[in-house]
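Entry:
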Amino acid sequence: MKHTADMKRILFVCLGNICRSSAAEEVMRQMLKTAGLENKVEVDSAGLIGYHEGELPDERMRRHARRRGYDLTHLSRPVRDMDFDLFDLIIGMDDSNIDRLLRMAPNVESEQKVHRMTEYCVRMTVDHVPDPYYGGDRGFEHVLDILEDACEGLLREIASLQPSPEGREKASPNPPREGKMKTAPQKV
């Protein structure tokens, strides 16, 4: 996909980029396509470690995702310094991811791009996306449930920010919660 100046860019991040973030990337990509926004928003994913660089997502995650109609083909890569310049949103899956991303951020503007995936959940009340690596089948299904919910909320926010044909931003039937696209997470 060719990037344009008005295109939003979202990076999903987890530890190794073989389960949660790669699944979030594909779930979001499919939702954007269904909503007709695939040419307005670019998605990617990365990991905080490079141990799995160049590998496909974990076979178990691919199997569970495939059952829901998602084809996970992303090859793992680590977060790069330039990602803080390239992406508008950098979304971590848990506290450890958020803390590390905030430490990596080169400046305050970059810190403001870092958000938690579960901030966007619309039905589920969870504070993180757990790592399913050691959790068995139920763990992978639970992660996909959370990611679908959070991506739905993120999509609503993105859709509400899209200009209407008359040049005004569209009013959304489900307005975004308190401007996540613009605010920084609170440091504790």
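The first helix runs from residue 20 to 34.
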